[in-house]
Every structure is written in C-alpha cells, then in structure tokens.
C-alpha cells in the first residue's frame, strides 16, 4: 500500500518535494495550496489531486504531511500533524517548535516527525566533517561567510514573498540554515556575541547583516557572517587546528588542506552544489519516507533544529544587550531581531 503524503504549499520547495515524492513508486501525493496557479501547475506537471480547502485535503486521509510554507506558518501544520497522529516533514526553521513536546508526542503516537537540513548530507559537508574529526587535530577556530543576494530570491514574487519581510528575511532564515550543518561539523555554540544591522541599500527595510562570534562546546571558537545585500554570492569558510589549516567552499564543493607535518597540501573536489543539491533534496525526503516504513535512516531532528535557531536567538539578543549571551536550546528567536 502506498504512503499518502499531503504536500502543504506548492512554491519552490514544495514543488521540489512533489517532484521527489512522485518519483517514488511507493508514495501517493496530493497538494494543499490556496493559490490556484500553484494547484494548476501541480496538476499539470505531476498529475496529482489538489485542494484549496484544508478540511477537504484532510478528508483525502493522508498518512503524512510535507510542510513547505513560509517559516512563520510551520507551527500551524506541525501542530495539526501532532494532533492527528500524522507523520510530518518540515522545511528549515527560524523558530523551532518545542522539541521535547515533538519527541514526546511522536513517541506516544508512533509517528515520524523530522525537519529539513538540505546541506548536511552534501558530499562536501560529509568530507569536511571527516577532515575536521580525523585530520585537522584539535580545533582552534572556524569561520564561515555566507553572502546571499535577496533580489535573486524569486524575483517574480512580490512583497508577499516571505524572504522580503523583516521577521522572515532571507539572511535571518539562513543563519540557522547554515548552523544546521556547521554545528554537526565543528561543535555546538554555548555562548554568542552578535551584531545585527542593515548595511546594504536594498529597499526592503529588514536588517541584512548577521555576524556572530561563538564559543563552542568543545572549547574552540566559531565565527559566522550572513548577509543578503551584497551581489556577490559566497559560501566559504576556513578552520585552524593543531595539525594545520583548511579552507572550504561549499558552493564549489572544494576543500583545501594544508597539514605541514603530514606533507599534505592539496585540494579535494566533491562536486558543486549545482551538481549535487537536487540529489540531496531527494535523499532527505526519501529518508523521511524510509523512516515511516520502519527503516533506519538519518534525518534532521527537532532537537538539532532547536539548537541552530537558539543560536540565532542568543546572537540577536546579544546585539540588543551588547553582552555575550548564553545559548539556551529552549529559548527561540523573538518575532523581530530587535524585540529582546
């Protein structure tokens, strides 16, 4: 019997999820979206049932929800899934729902409840984790810079597009998105000094620059900068350890290693993001389906998500208080970056 998945939202990520779910022979997919153009597009491309009414969509009797709404709407559908005992997969969060409640209800009802971290299984990220753990030696510090450019995010969409709003701004969303994999590679932040400002000239009023200096749970230091007002796209970083130095370019899928005592001075290529990312989208949603079927598969947990979004909260609070703030996994970001 096929697993029935109701896709919530038919935008960019929702379309990817429908593409990858319908590519499997063991899944039946339907779409709930209030926008007629998205429903018509899904019907034509995937040949699936669509709904503009949530009650009617639930009468389709799904086994699982795939939630691809703007970040500020995630909780509504997660709560629905938990209440009705449905499995659920959710896109990356800015605010993570109470992970202890998610774990408790999921265990009681025997459901799979996971969230997304699309880059954590990239070959270059897996390679980076292996190098940091096995070759770099004792980590001293890492630094990461992500420059994304808001005007390139769905330029055909208007002001209603969530990434153009202050509370769900592109750069704000990308802080925990990057930390989702960085925390697993380098260690989890325990204290943060943050800086949040508008430095660019975009017409949108949202802050566009997030900078963080972090103390990690392993004693090392970490730095991350995320911007959305610079037209040059960058996803690069570096790290130092007792055995030497590495540089990594996530977009290019490359890691440069310099370990003098081991005689290593080389670049390793894992494939560009453009070459492998779509495969990763398929992998993470397929892992979710395999988990539903009772198989052991790696999925990003709500606890992991809560740690990443809690770092964002501590950094934004630090920017307001001008003090180093402790990271508390139970404290999530305020509605706006300056509301602490």
How is this structure best summarized?
The protein is an alpha/beta fold. The chain has helices at 12-22, 36-46, 54-59, 74-84, 99-109, 123-134, 170-186, 273-292, 302-321, and strands spanning 3-8, 27-32, 49-51, 64-67, 87-90, 113-115, 139-149, 189-197, 209-216, 221-227, 229-241, 244-249, 254-259, 264-269, 325-326.
Index terms:
single chain; 340 residues; alpha/beta; Rossmann fold; Dihydrodipicolinate Reductase, domain 2
Describe the structure.
With 340 residues, this protein is α/β, with parallel strands linked by helices. The chain folds into two domains: 3-116, NAD(P)-binding Rossmann-like Domain (Rossmann fold), CATH 3.40.50.720; 123-278 and 305-326, 2-Layer Sandwich (Dihydrodipicolinate Reductase, domain 2), CATH 3.30.360. 35% of the residues lie in helices and 28% in strands. It contains nine helices and 15 strands. The chain has helices spanning 12-22, 36-46, 54-59, 74-84, 99-109, 123-134, 170-186, 273-292, 302-321; strands spanning 3-8, 27-32, 49-51, 64-67, 87-90, 113-115, 139-149, 189-197, 209-216, 221-227, 229-241, 244-249, 254-259, 264-269, 325-326. A nine-stranded mixed sheet has the order 14-13-12-11-7-10-9-8-15. Strand 5, helix 5 (99-109) and strand 6 form a beta-alpha-beta unit. Helix 7 packs across helix 9. The longest helix has 20 residues, at 273-292. It is globular and about 60 Å long. The chain starts with a strand and ends in a 14-residue tail after the last strand. The relative contact order is 0.14.
